[in-house]
Amino acid sequence: MTLRISELHAVEILDSRARPTLAVTLATADGTRVRAGVPSGASTGSREAVELRDGDPARFGGQGVSRAVAQVSGEIAEALAGRDFGSAADVDAALIELDGTPTKSRLGANAIIGVSMAAARAEAAARGAELWESLSAVAHTPPRLPVPHFNVVNGGAHAANALDFQEFMLAPLGAPGLAEAVRAGAEVYGRLKARLAAAGHATGLGDEGGFAPAIDSPEEVLGLLVEAIEDAGYTAGREGVAIALDPAASEFWHEDHYVVAGERLSSDELIDRYEEIVGRFPVRSIEDGLAEGDWDGWVRLTARLGEEVQIMGDDIFVTNPAIITEAIDRKVGNSALIKVNQIGTVTETLEAMRICRDAGYTRMVSHRSGETEDTFIADLVVGTGAGQLKSGAPARGERVAKYNRLLELADIQPELPYGLA
Fold first, then answer.
1. How far is the C-alpha of 405 from the C-alpha of 252, rounded, in Å?
2. Which residues are 8's β-sheet partners?
3. How far apart are alpha carbons 53 and 67 in whole angstroms?
4. Does residue 343 have a pLDDT over 90?
5. Which of 203, 285, 301, 368 sits in a 20 to 30 Å window from 361, CA-based?
6. Residue 1 has what pLDDT?
7. What b/e readout covers 391-408, taking b as 16+ CB neighbours within 10 angstroms?
8. Quick check: is 104 catalytic?
């Protein structure tokens, strides 16, 4: 197989938060033409690959991406067009070499990941395969339809409310298949809206489609979720619909302590609170329970709760193979969130997932708060067999697009296994 890139072009578009991002179009010499929309995060780890933004306050408040667009259509296109590549991984290697920085800050991680995603699509076309099939072949992993995790209550950096914990997710672990899991998520979401409205809460949505009520207590939200699950006719628990949390604790870390709903907590006091939460509510996963720099606290959190729930790293791991390797050595967490734009190429993303898989760490593929209609991550989670996807609430077109892609795959590929890896 040979990939010869004949054209690379980018355009500035809007993400789901009305902030600029870019879409990359890649054409090959054989006439293939593919496109990739680039996601962008709000709650970000300090060691993520670095986006290239314009910084011009007169345009999009400095958040424009015309410089990243120019890099794709200019320097990157000049370096890659006309060359023969044996695979998308070779394209990624060329991008990393061309950028020359450890954080992809010169060309911009947003420019690089757009080209990388498009190259992965071009490779699938060259194979005559669906994207998920091609990624499965590249990663040497059996495909699997994932358990969707629906973010139905937003706080933290994703909503303008006083709720410090960032995401409260529904995980329909007891569903016998993907369609039933999506149905459960949508039905509970509807019942939750009714409960919130009945209690006098506004039912406006946060960045990821979840409700953003004026509540500051995580435990109050968890109680409402259990009631909504039962209102919808499901069992609250691992045999029915469980709950996953993303506190995003780096956002409420203040130098040497945490602040949750006005209460000052040490690392150990916050771990105690998580232990109480897990004892009271059907929580099966805690993502970013502590701040990205609180490594010693992470070791203690993993030792205390790692046998009962997923202890998942996001800001602390940033889909970085080297950081994940260090975390495994130090017994930090037992699971990793996977975001392609955190590390900046599809190849490095697959390597991070391989390291996790070899160490027995679970993986959850994730969207970002700023999304496009691109469904790349739906094919990524299926092709890599990760078994878990979070893409926001079962609402808002850019979130639902990913779930609908999974429903499409479940329909046309009914032989695909479903469930946790």
1. 35
2. 26
3. 7
4. yes
5. 368
6. 79
7. bbbbbbebbbbbbebbbe
8. no
Helix (H) or strand (E) segment spanning residue 149:
strand 147-154
* Residue 40: pLDDT band with limits 50, 70, 90: very high
For the chain, how many residues are written? 421
- In eight-state DSSP terms, residue 205 is B
Name the least confident of 75-79, 160-164, 305-309, 375-379: 160-164
223-234: pLDDT as tens digits: 999 999 999 999
b/e 25-57 (16+ beta carbons within 10 angstroms → b): bbbbeeebebebbbbbbbbbbebbbbbbbbeee
Tokens, residue 6: 């004949």
Q: State how far the Cα of 404 lies from the Cα of 392, in Å rounded to an integer.
A: 13
CA dihedral 107, 365, 38, 354 (to 10 degrees): 30
Tokens of 351: 């390597």
User: Is residue 24 within 8 Å of residue 34, measured between CB atoms?
Assistant: no
Tokens of 417: 């296994």
H/E element, 44: none
* Catalytic-labelled residue, pool 167, 208, 348, 398: 208
* Separation CA 17–CA 40 (nearest Å): 10
Q: Please give the pLDDT value at position 77.
A: 98
Tens of pLDDT, residues 250-270: 999 998 999 999 999 999 999
Query: pTM of this prediction?
Result: 0.96
Question: CA-CA distance, 391 to 1, in Å (whole number)?
Answer: 33
d(CA 311, CA 320): 17
Tell me if residue 376 falls in helix, strand or coil.
Answer: helix
Cα–Cα distance, 308 to 100 (Å, whole number)? 42
Q: What angle do CA 165, 170, 174 make, to 5 degrees?
A: 145
CA distances from 339 to 127, 234, 400 (A): 25, 30, 18
Residue 43: band (very low, low, confident or very high) from pLDDT cuts 50, 70, 90: low
Catalytic one of 339, 390, 398, 402: 339
CA distance 362 to 333: 10
Residue among 6, 8, 21 nearest 374 (CA): 21
Contact 308, 320 (CB under 8 A): no
Average pLDDT of the residues in 155-180: 91
